[in-house]
Protein 1
Amino acid sequence: MPHWKLCLGMASPKRPELNPSHRAMTYPHHAACVSLPTSAGLIIAALVYIRGWLRVRRPDSKYSVGAWRVISFLLGLFLIWTAIGSPVARLDYTLLTAHMIKHLLLMTLAPPLILLGTPLRPLLLGTPQRILHVCGLLFRSSPVQQLAKDLTHPAICWLGATGALVAWHVPDLFVLGLRSEMWHWIEQASFFATGLLFWWPVVHPLSIATKWSQWSVLLYLFLATLPCDILSAFLVFCDRVVYPVFLSSPQSFGLSAVEDQQCAGALMWTCVTVIYLVAGTLITARLLSPKSSPEWSVRQSGPPGVSISTTVRQDVEVA
């Protein structure tokens, strides 16, 4: 064999074969296929909310929803669209960092903005009267009120969000969410739903009866950082690729699979810590203030099931 061929063979060894489960996958779902219905649904929700808000802010209305709450609700809808309907969603299958951005948008950023918009009354008033009447019958039923009360208990909210976070980052379930369109939507829906549950005791602390319980929201936020810190630290400091499916993905933005994993973990670590710290600071400032803002406390007291029932009944009367 010529010397130059021998040197060439030594300089460029044969690339090892990837495990079949690590090779590139053909994804049945794509952001371009779902962006139109997703955008349409979010636009309809925004229009219904604005229609109801315009009725709430009438001079003869007993209830007021400030303009800043409208902005908060619409911004929350925009973040949902960014996560599941925008071009950012297309990177979910090639970059773990993009997946982490979607997770943060659906679970950590959009839910508190939606809840700060106090969406129940504007959405109900914005719907046609027949639908509002059906909602009234539904929410006035005792089982629904009890279910709402149970689901919004702080322990259930914390366990639900923590369970969704941990479960969907187990490698087998993670890959299942990438391979299956149905499971992909279940994953996204569970992130958003548990995000709403998690942020309920934080955004609506006055639904908890005692002053001590309101201070316990700070402990609630601190405990919520622990599973996020453990998962993100594992991603940052692990010296192997946790999700081998990304080994077969093209290197985007010049990141290797390990560097992408470290970036995703660092992003989660930083964002969750900062957001929870900001929330805790705002809650502390509100609790230490001599007088709580009336705008903050509007329709936030009382058990969730009872307040929903009362809201629906009053809105049916208004409609």
Protein 2
Amino acid sequence: MKASPALKVREPLTAALAGLALTCLPAVSPTPQSLTPSGPAALSLLPAAQAQTKPASTARVLRISAIPDQKPEKLNRLYGLVANELSKQLGVTVTYVPMTDYTAAVSAFRTGDLDLVWFGGLTGVQARLQKPGARVLAQRDIDASFHTIFIANARSGLKPISNVKGLSELKGKRFTFGSESSTSGRLMPQSFLAKAGVKLSDFAGGAPGFSGSHDATIALVQSGAYDAGAVNEQVWRSSLHDGKANRSKVIPIWKTPGYPDYHWIAQGNLDKRFGTGFTAKLQKAILSWRPSDPEQKQILSLFGAQQFTGADAKAYGQIEQVGRQIGKIR
């Protein structure tokens, strides 16, 4: 039986209308790859056409993320503002994709599920080594010479020290780092501890703790759960300003020498996806943020900076060297 002319017209018209409806749906942040199936199992959950090609709309959505170095509430606020500002300046849809941990951020960038990520020094090096062609776009004005603050519970008996050798006083104490992949909360602190002759097995219990984030480290040391810890200087200052760190309960005992840390890293294929010159336009947008603009002022304040500046990938050679020494880069 032959289909009527009306039916022949209706079928492509229906498909076209369905496609139009899909393109009008709001952009939804994709779930981090670490939380979704992968490989053949994942493809089997999709219609054949979707399994072979990504939806056309994905090519025009800039997916941004960051290592989860602070509480989710603060990160959601900060990167929601970043997404809005970049969308306004670039004229494309920008969506923030939260990550469960530092490793998830590196993995999602490697697989191409994230386009622009705010990495720490170590995670940034890891991401670039795993994704050739990735571009370092910018860092904060405080990142060229960043610092770790060693802190101690006020009742621990620990006192401020004047140089790296004084870290030997931490032997036998309950000590916590932040995330295992944190530059300022683990990598560089461990390097300085080694210079003072302190091995990880020298801490009480034969090993340090890992709090997972800088604000968690401050809370744990302040509560007395640990005698001491190492935290990001910017988060420490912010915690003091916000009243979350109480100087009568937790004190700074040493500030490390400077080292390069956080930076924005972008995929190398953004010009292909968004058009020639897009990567340069993205970099220019980030570098243009100033406190004189109300929205940009909020972003910079949450980042603890006055502005972003250019960054040189070669400057992170020190971070890669230390990462290899402690086994975080192979």
Protein 3
Amino acid sequence: MTEVGTAVPPGGDIPASDQRAPQSPRAQLGWALASTAALLLWLAWQWGWVPAVAGVIGVLVHETGHLLVINALGCGPSRIHIIPFFGGAATMQRPPKSEFHGVLIAMAGPVAGLLAAVPFIVATRITGDPRWTDGAGFIILINLLNMLPAPPLDGSKALGPALARIHPLVERAALVLIGGAVAYVALRDHNLLFGAFVAVATLAALRRPSRPASRRLSIGEWFASVGLWAGVLAAGVYALVFSFSQTGWSDGPAVIRASGF
């Protein structure tokens, strides 16, 4: 659903011919409001207003996590773009200096996104209203989906360098198997936009001749990357089970099917 975008090719600056005149603050605000409203309306049409509001909040918090780490690691200034029908993206002005920095940037989104579910879980505990659980579950599902190591999801950027450290073919095999499986399930369940999005991104990743030029993972960073990915995935699964155990989802099965799970 969500992607950490890059404004320049790895290892280069923006060519003069590719630079665009900056939009006025009013135009930027107008586009941000319009794209956010379009995403909200589309989610509401698909799953109802509570998951829609939760989804927009989850996307904004998820992308803010990316933005903060991008800026902290000197890859910014970053900007968040809301993309109707898909979610959002946080852009980078320059590529990470090392693969581990890329892993940290990728994982910052799911970590922040899972935290966005906490107020909805607390509201469920206080009120007992299952609609809050719907919102929490939707946010958690968005972030669990992003943890899958399938392009262009965050999981592929977090786990890809560790797989390539074993052997480049291991990463490519994982891209084919997991990316193909995600695209197949999404298309089978008539989630055509997401299925086509993953399929095209997987093919583009396979056509990439090599990984971007940056410092490779050390052994310690390899274990840290895998441990971080596995830990956040486990936390997301636990949060989903805990959220479900509070009241159950009033529309849980439909949300799961629509999300491709």
Protein 4
Amino acid sequence: MEDHPERCRRTALRRGGDPVIPRTVANRFANRMGVDLHIAQQEVVLLYALDALAARGIVDRLIFKGGTYVRMMVTGDAGRLSEDLDFTNNGLPEDPQSLLDAAFEAPHFGVQFRVVEPYRTTARNWACGVEYGHEWDRGRFRFEISYRERAFLPPGRWKPLDQLYFPALPFSVPEIPSLRLEEAIAEKLRAIQQRATERDLYDAARYGQKGFDQDLVRLLAVGKLWNDRQAFDPEAILRTLSQGRKEWPDLERLIGRARRQNWNRLTAETAQRFAFLRDLTRFEQDLVLDARKHQLRSKLDETLLPFDRERRPPR
């Protein structure tokens, strides 16, 4: 298949089907990122899935977050590739499978999707596998919607950062309702306190290189752990970042060996960047103490009101 998107579209239509991104374009993208072709094409497929959901209005009832959000909306070429789609619910029913089945029923520009093995996680999230196939590859990714909490801040609505393969897409890149940068960072800090995977540490390091409102990040991080009835522990988060990990095998698979760095040094530097987490305000201290009793919801909502207005892109 030829590279030019119009020629790709005409060729596919002559064959009686819809166009899929040319393999040659995906190869160039994989080479730029230094990863296996299958991993690179899966990120492209994730954008096809997002566009299919946008075409049905489903993304308007979700808030994009997680590793693919970090890569597509925040870090661009500097970030790791991801293999799944994560959202916070913003209006979908408790069981969204019928909506997803309808959105994925027909091939979307040459990519066929199918929801498989839906389940509920221990954190009240709804998740499933999504199998996909197109003319030169097939695979599966995880799809998860969090129902355990509402977003603290209204989402922004942005297009993903430009990528090498965008000119070859047979559709216009959609705007996607997304977590505000500070709330995404706060969720990552909560994840570091609770589980600290290598992806969590790497994403925090990339976030640390961005400009953001430190006071808002700290307030939201305290609030996120308060939502889980856990006391925010800045020392535990900073210690985990400072110590790093003995091995980073999953990260090297998703970012490519050519871009290998001293990840432990990077996360140690990130710990210094996030030292402001120790500077708790009086209200944040009260929120930490209230983690079990949960009596400060209205005060927390009131404190966050001034931050509802600004929705700049997480660039």
